[in-house]
Design goal:
The structure is a homotetramer.
Chain A lengths: L2 E6 L13 H18 L4 H6 L2 E2 L2 E8 L8 E11 L3 E10 L5 E10 L1 E2 L10 H11 L1
Antiparallel strand pairs in A: 1-4, 2-7, 3-6, 4-5, 5-6
Amino acid sequence: MVTTVRHKVNFYDTDAMAVVHHSNYIRWFEIGRVEFLREAGITLNQLMDDGYVFPITEVSAKYVNSAKFDDELIIETTPEALTKAKMAFTYRILRASDDTLLVTGRTQNVFTSMETGKITRLPDAYYNKLKAMLD
Amino acid sequence: MVTTVRHKVNFYDTDAMAVVHHSNYIRWFEIGRVEFLREAGITLNQLMDDGYVFPITEVSAKYVNSAKFDDELIIETTPEALTKAKMAFTYRILRASDDTLLVTGRTQNVFTSMETGKITRLPDAYYNKLKAMLD
Amino acid sequence: MVTTVRHKVNFYDTDAMAVVHHSNYIRWFEIGRVEFLREAGITLNQLMDDGYVFPITEVSAKYVNSAKFDDELIIETTPEALTKAKMAFTYRILRASDDTLLVTGRTQNVFTSMETGKITRLPDAYYNKLKAMLD
Amino acid sequence: MVTTVRHKVNFYDTDAMAVVHHSNYIRWFEIGRVEFLREAGITLNQLMDDGYVFPITEVSAKYVNSAKFDDELIIETTPEALTKAKMAFTYRILRASDDTLLVTGRTQNVFTSMETGKITRLPDAYYNKLKAMLD
């Protein structure tokens, strides 16, 4: 199941090459991830209130075409793998006006206990909601 | 007493006009403020460990000239006013190579208790260190 | 005439005090300004293609309440003053869920020629569109 | 040959988990790359004045430990591969106080003509300076 969210490129996202700075797409993967969780019935705020954080352990991206100021982007987020301890997503970011592929990427996250700071196993209540999204 | 700290402009600080985005100078005032506190013998981490935060309530800036990628900047921070509940600073940011004035600014901060989230009075141990910097 | 645009707070907009970093609101004023121009029938890209840029010369903000991750914000932009050489806006940023006022602000911009880098007078075609928004 | 540059973590680099947001390390790889070029006798400004840009086509990072506000970081940049059309770097970011490894990464860049927007072959004057750094 693919989660889709739109994001407009702001002027402050551009750099002196007059295109979006490459680091911003890494931030926009996060927008996709948060939206994926919301569609799974989980808000990051809830997860944190329950003592879990969801830090990134790996990120990668390939830059195919550049986004420019005022472009409307489509961020597609797809769950790739899930265990009770970690989760991987893949991403595609496209320009909405012509469906040009701009960036592809992948992140690996782990579920961590805020109390111990260590990797932990996600309770079933959360795990099952995420699992349902991979089917 | 003026606190001086240097900061190099990174490529990711620029925007599509090929100059530093104006919001970044607001961030760099923070670098100046943190350095001022350090010269007063206070680290922001210490302050937070003791339960105090130091949020901004007002900021203003005038943009005189533009910084560009790879410019070395001088951030000058001057304490303007201090009570046990709040503190104001003024700033000047200059290009180091030719002392061109780029930006002037001012911030108003309040001392806030992390526990209550409310404005609080700073203990003498901190207040006296800050006070000594204004003399 | 007030221009209204919505913006969701992303996780990367927060800082270690678990609220939005104050510099981000300065960026969001820009979102409001760009949207105001669009409602006036002007895109910033058009303006730049015609050789005009619109740099900030002054900014100020008062921080009343803090936004948090996942808050939906309303950015209100109001034109305050206009000549052929410069324009001022005021802003209010509110939390959409309960209309709490978070930040107020003001910016002063100038119209600048990309060719000369100097302040210039805006042609009537643009000026009249902006003027119509103040009436 | 490894290029080393230091960078202090600012408060605005942190997020609501009270650690550096993962996207910032991607920005800091850029600081390392720019410093590497400088040590090779090339400034990015020179390269751009000569009509070349150096966009990223791939980035990856592994996050091992978290940096916090006020940490001093060491950014190590190592050239991995070089042709006249592209260049790869690897990175290590460490906490200076105790040499803890925080992040490792890799970028792939291409040399692009600003005029055509296409990948181009770097002239010998630049290529030889870069080549000397890999030996």
